[in-house]
Amino acid sequence: MIKTIMVVVLGLLVGATLSVPVMARLRPHHDLAAFRFRLKAWWTMAAMFLVVNRLHPSLSLVGFALLSWIGLREYLKRVDDLPRIARVCCYLVVPLQYYWVWLGWYGMFIVFIPVYLFLYPPIRLSPSADSIRQVSAVHWGLMAAVFCVSHAAFLLKFPVRPAGGAGLLLFVTLLTELGDAIRLLFGRSNWRLLAVVAATVAAAVGLTPYLTPMSLEHGVLAGFVLGIGGDVGAHRLDQLRLALNLGDGPLQPGQGGALARILALTYTAPLFLHGFRFFYL
Hints:
Layout: H1 2-26, H2 33-55, H3 59-76, H4 84-103, H5 106-119, H6 129-154, H7 164-186, H8 192-211, H9 216-243, H10 257-262, H11 265-280
């Protein structure tokens, strides 16, 4: 069933790609640069999902770890006067966090960054206002780029029917990216949030029976929560990205880098994982 859905997704991507010149002709004053950029990211994600599941699903962890590492690297570049040893320690957090994911050790996965890395760094720094701001900035980056994104990878560890953890990950990713597409098309319209929620709920109704073990009611709830959560997350984290001048990234200079690709997912993946785990595991 995942293969069938991926064929449908590829068809939608082809349709979206072919619609770009049509939209440019119909709306010549509407800037489609962000939509074109995100469309390339969607093609890349679809290709990676197909290749990884063809070879071995565990390779997805490597992909998510790489995305977290690049996003963290972009973020730490904007943290002033951060000692080299602190940067190295931050980068070492990435493989450690994804090692807990690979083990399926939920207890350590869920407390490693929010608890242990919250309590320990202040002990090693002088009690000054600048140090506290620096620690706060670093911890926020670890939470967003590593901890929240690793929730998407942890979905792969859930052995559920009918499509396993890969089905859950595909469900969250499709609804998140659908919300992104609606936001890009509607811009700052007052109807944007309503359109996003309507689209994600409708998609959830269609995808829930094939990708998740959830009831229809919980599928509708998931679509509603992911629609709102993705919109809030994309808006808030995009403000942070712009405030830190993260316009250039190593993945694609001038197009926002890795952080632009994971903005909404940092909110939707944790929301879905903990909600699903509460009701079904």
